[in-house]
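Late entry, evening session. Most of the bench is empty. Finally got around to the prediction I had been postponing all week. Sequence below, unchanged from the version circulated by S.P.
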Amino acid sequence: MDIPSKYSAQTVESKWYDYWMTHNYFHSTPDDREPYTIVIPPPNVTGVLHMGHMLNNTIQDVLIRRARLKGKNACWVPGTDHASIATEAKVVAKLKAQGIDKNDLSREEFLKHAWEWTEEYGGVILEQLKKLGCSCDWDRTKFTMDEDMSEAVIKVFVDLFNKGLIYRGYRMVNWDPEAQTTLSDEEVIHEERTDKLYYVKYKIEGENAYVTIATTRPETILGDTAVCINPDDERFTHLKGKKVIVPLCDRVIPIIEDDYVDIEFGTGCLKVTPAHDVNDKDIGDRHNLDVIDVLNPDGSMNSFGLHHEGKDRVIARKDVAKELEDMGLLVKTESIVHNVGTSERTKAVIEPRLSDQWFLKMEDLAKPALDAVLTNGEVKLFPKKFENTYRHWMENIRDWNISRQLRWGQQIPAYYYGDGKEDFVVAQNLTEAVELAREKTSNSELKASDLTQESDVVDTWFSAWLWPMNVFDGIRNPENEEIKYYYPTNDLVTGPDILFFWVARMIVAGYEYKDSRPFENVYLTGLVRDKQRRKMSKSLGNSPDALKLIDDYGAGGVRVGLLLSSAAGNDLMFDEALCQQGKQFANKIWNALRLVKGWEVDNSISQPNSNRIAIEWFESKFQKDLVEIEDHFSKYRLSDALMTIYKLVWDDFCGSFLEMVKPSYQKPIDAQTLEKVNTIFEEVLKIVHPFMPFLTEELWHFIKERSPEEALIVAKWPETKSIDEALISEFEFASEVISGIRNIRKQKNIASKDAIKFSVVNNENATSTFDEVIFKMGNLESFNYVEDSIEGALTFRVKSNEYFIPMEGSIDVEAEIKKLTEELNYTEGFLISVQKKLSNERFVNNAPEQVVASEKKKEADALAKIETIKGSLASLQ
């Protein structure tokens, strides 16, 4: 079968992906083999392929393909996450474009639009992953809103509630006014911003005097219910027990004392607004203060905002400040740099907000998950440095706010039957809820229509934390064949930014519901950054189009480019040149097979000893590197494993081995060598396959025709065999000899086709194992061992061995003398100029020390070069 002159990645990649899919190589079912399982970190259903996905999923595919080659029953479960906030935002935007307000729709009507959007746009990313070569078991694709997946989430909610671990509480939460939902602390991104600090006067009741407070949010003044001072602040002793009048609304509020107030910050007087600050809420609870919320859920002012009602909080801030200024109550403003919480999803500034929410008690649940990583090592983090981060989060864990004020998601299974906060039951469905409500109220006449289900949905992460179990139906059917076979899974590949969000919570869920870890190893990738170390983002315009990269460099080129410099846990400084390097690597391997395919075979000739030695050497070198590759994989150093493979293929296989066994120009190769070369090529393709699956599968079938059962994707990973370390060491020595011969040929313009005589004084007692290889690679006419140096010969050394190439017939003596004479004259002139500079006392005394040192080095180098040239001239004359 003829191999084309160029590798066409696009043609090859579509062909082999279809072939793999047609023959169902990615699909797994339980059998008697050892399982190897990975569950994909489900990308948002709204997502499109970006560089982070490319890196993460390339790593997973490398692991799953290697496991498949190692004979394991490899199962990589794909899927997507419903991403409550992000998806609902997309649907709301689409409805808005159609002139429809979400609030005008019933829940059922909105969900219909959400499902339509999901079916039309959702899951695009999974199709894009196929372009990358991801060998997921697509028959197992799951979506966190699938009916069976949602049923399991509800089942877990009910179970945890019945265990007393889920409760409803009125708490201060993080509120996203754009998405109009609560967020967890982990979903709030703190950004450093410069804002104004406003100094405002509050009149002391009954006096013609004022106290001054400092605030960044004058619009919340309308919700103040106290002014607080530190009891130890001597400046304000005269204020104790007095009251002040809140500007604009003229509400009389007390001056209270609390140690929380920082004497050094601002004016030392703190306005207390319990509805709009978590610390103010704590103060308010200690002093029984009223709570006045001045904001609507969308961040606009409510009726407590008086004539500012309806204004957005940002506009109201400016207007209130202007009003205070006009009233003579604004003392001054100054700039302040502080951290502002923003929504991870919508980027809106977060509002602290008091509301009824559902919480999961985490302290006891977290203990087994903490021990699994830090005590008994049942779950291992790679790199290990993230254990400290994990420890900090898990030892300081708070109750998890699991409710979200959205429609897209699993609706919380709480059913209200009365007006009181405790007038509810939690049940798997409405039928069960009715029975529970009848029992709780002793009212057998209660009907389904008397119950109203909680409108909130659970946090997306509350469904995602069940992912490794749920994809195998391990919650609804905990003893089914698949959960018992595939769980716990083996490796999880994800980013450290969701170590707590997702990884820790999955470990918590695993021990709670399976009394077992959900996975054994967690490989934490770094972030993909640009060459300037900036995080890639659409807003910066520094994130390349992932699919265009695949079009330009081939999937294999991009995969290699990403992994060559992507150590676990360390950020990758992405450079498109890395993908070009990957593409060149693909071309190198392609051209290597083209070279082999171009050899004519002669069955009548016997194998030269040089070929036999070359084969024995490469097999040992391959085995030595295979041990190193396996060690790298065991420590999740995939970048190092790839680099070892890269050097083995580029330098040892292509650069040395194929050159050693290559037949002379227009000469045939013996059948025994060619057969062995093809076998070795197959072994090379196996170790490259996890990184460059398309290219290697194509070449695998060019080596010889194969049935589907013999495809590379299901071939057998190379076995480790004995290593001849002495042979490897002897080759390293021989390769230096060959390099020495080639360097002299280059220096003296001796054509590679011209055979030359060669002699050695073997001071090292080097073996003669590779002499025939040296003879062939150096294109030698003769190779002799001699006792003494050969006068007038070109020479070089390898360690203490001296090698000689007689000049007679090897070079044009007259031309060489002319060239050396010119070089000598130039170097002597250069030496004079340097020595003149060094003889100048002013220069030596005044120039920087390193400049003088540099000139002295130039002098020494020139003297040494002159001596060498004169020696060469003497040998020629």
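Two things to note before I forget:
The longest strand covers residues 188-204.
The chain has a mean pLDDT of 93.
Will write this up properly tomorrow.
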